[in-house]
Design goal:
Sulfite Oxidase, Chain A, domain 2, 2 domains, five-stranded mixed beta sheet, 12 strands, 19% helix
Length: 189
């Protein structure tokens, strides 16, 4: 027996299925229906391309920063223990709060509800993307800031590109984006 699923529901389920399975849509198959590609972890890895600039966007506000421009901004130093390796590393970089402030979203009482509804899409040069709540990146909320790191143990990042998203407090660093090329701020309405 075939169960009919309303059109809207079918299209609402697909994104959830993609999140659960880690699959991506390859292309439309026979009859115009999307076909599932292989899971992301099985797809061929793209070659590493070193990040050399960071694009930051919020709506119609956008700017691009070079390593020198980011180095001139306020810096924070974080010492973190990587959960699965138990290694301790020290990163220095610009707090996300400073970048949000530059976009016109400072952490103030007036902006608190806006920040609660804002998320960041962080993307690396290899296409790896993660979502991070803007609110959780702020030091008053987590006790430490999430940063765009420029150095590791006092030296410029090497294989991780010019920029790396570092989110202290995550027990595993899956949301830490190496070769960070962009941060796009969006809001849930």
């Amino acid at each position: 027996m075939k169960i009919q699923v309303p059109f809207r529901l079918r299209h609402a389920i697909l994104p959830i299925a993609l999140l659960v399975t880690g699959s991506v849509i390859a292309q439309d198959g026979p009859g115009g229906r999307p076909e599932m590609a292989e899971p992301m972890h099985m797809a061929q890895a793209k070659p590493k391309v070193r990040s050399t600039s960071l694009a930051i966007t919020l709506g119609d506000k956008s700017f691009t920063l070079t390593p020198a421009e980011l180095a001139a901004m306020p810096q924070e130093t974080l010492t973190v223990t990587i959960g699965h390796t138990k290694a301790t590393e020290t990163f220095t970089g610009v707090p996300i709060a400073a970048l949000l402030e530059k976009l016109g979203l400072p952490f103030t009482k007036a902006n608190e509800h806006t920040l609660l509804k804002t998320f960041l899409v962080a993307e690396g040069t290899d296409g790896y993307r993660v979502l991070v709540s803007a609110y959780e990146t702020l030091a008053p909320i987590r006790s430490t800031s999430a940063i765009v790191a420029l150095t590791l143990d006092g030296k410029p990042l090497a294989a991780d590109g010019s920029f790396k998203l570092v989110i202290p407090g995550d027990s595993r660093p899956q949301r830490w984006v190496q070769n960070l090329k962009s941060l796009t701020c969006k809001s849930v309405e």
